[in-house]
Automatic annotation (TrEMBL):
This is Histidine triad nucleotide-binding protein. PROSITE patterns: HIT_1, HIT_2. Residues 5-112 form the HIT domain. It comes from Faecousia intestinalis. Transmembrane segments: none annotated. CDD domains: PKCI_related (cd01276). SUPFAM superfamilies: HIT-like.
Length: 112
């Protein structure tokens, strides 16, 4: 998966500003933040998008959301945050490795 940017970040081939790492996932700051606080959480396993998820990944996705809850508490997202995963062309997914955007630090506008 050498052509996958996020696999290359996981392999240490591309630098990133890491927030948290464990055996299942990595959290790092988005290179082009869309909010005062904007980080990504990715599974270490290469999964192309949320469309590839099945029951076998239920524990992994639950773990990622537990990590998001922990990190947003630690970072002081006291007034809330948004979790987004873009899936496929219509959603504008640019990196084909499952990732959860976590956005906060301001009142977020509505989206469609
Ligand atoms: P998508 O549009 O696929 O949902 O989001 C991909 C996100 O990955 C974008 O917000 C983009 O800024 C971020 N991104 C792309 N390449 C890199 C990179 O090399 N490093 C970091 N930290 N973020 C990246
Ligand atoms: Zn990948």
């Amino acid at each position: 998966m050498n052509d996958c940017i996020f696999c290359r970040i996981l392999a240490g081939e591309i630098p990133s500003k890491k927030l948290y790492e464990d055996e299942q996932c990595l959290a790092f700051y988005d290179i082009q933040p869309l909010a005062p606080q904007h980080f990504l959480v990715i599974p270490k396993a290469h999964i192309a998008s949320a469309a590839e998820l099945g029951e076998e990944q239920a524990a992994l996705v639950g773990h990622i959301f537990a990590v998001i809850a922990k990190l947003t508490k630690e970072l002081g997202f006291a007034d809330g945050f948004r979790v987004v995963t873009n899936c496929g062309e219509d959603a504008g997914q640019t990196v084909k490795h499952l990732h959860f955007h976590v956005l906060g630090g301001k009142t977020l506008g509505s989206f469609n």
